[in-house]
Amino acid sequence: MRLSALLIGAAYTHTHGEKVDGQDGAHYQQINFGADYLLSKRTDLYLVTVLQKAGGVNSTEHAAVAAINGATPSSTDKQIVAALGIRQRF
């Protein structure tokens, strides 16, 4: 039985924090996309992309910045992280 050689996934997340001194709390919108292409039984190519947009005020009463887990926080309200690679399983 042969499985499909291409796997694709996507997700959207919206997080909204509590108000800070009457101002809208920090809120984040994030889109995740991933694709995996099987070259053989043990080898595949992969692509993972994450886009995030922040808004509102964080708990320190500063403008919220995008901060994707595993990456250095952005200095702005937007951030994009991507990873492309080849994997060999043993």
Write the layout of secondary structure elements.
Layout: E1 6-16, E2 27-38, E3 43-55, E4 78-88
Antiparallel strand pairs: 1-2, 2-3, 3-4
Number of helices: 0
User: Could you spell the SSE succession in H and E letters?
Assistant: EEEE
End-to-end distance, in Å?
21 Å
| Beta strand % | over 45%
Spatial order of the strands forming the largest sheet: 1-2-3-4
Uncertain spans: none
Structural class label: mainly beta
Q: Main β-sheet: number of strands, strand sense, barrel status?
A: 4 strands, antiparallel
Radius of gyration: 18 Å
Number of domains: 1
Shape: elongated
GO molecular function, one term: porin activity
Organism: Caballeronia udeis
Protein name: Outer membrane protein (Porin)
InterPro entries: Gram_neg_porin_domain, Porin_dom_sf
Structure description:
It comes from Caballeronia udeis. One of its GO terms (molecular function) is porin activity. The structure is a single chain. A four-stranded antiparallel sheet has the order 1-2-3-4, with no helix packed on it. It is built from no helices and four strands. The two termini are 21 Å apart. The model has no long low-confidence stretch (mean pLDDT 91). It has one domain (6-88). A hairpin with a 4-residue loop joins β2 (27-38) and β3 (43-55). It has 90 residues and is mostly beta strands.
Task: Tell me briefly what this model is.
The protein is an all-beta fold.
Task: List its traits.
mainly beta; 90 residues; elongated
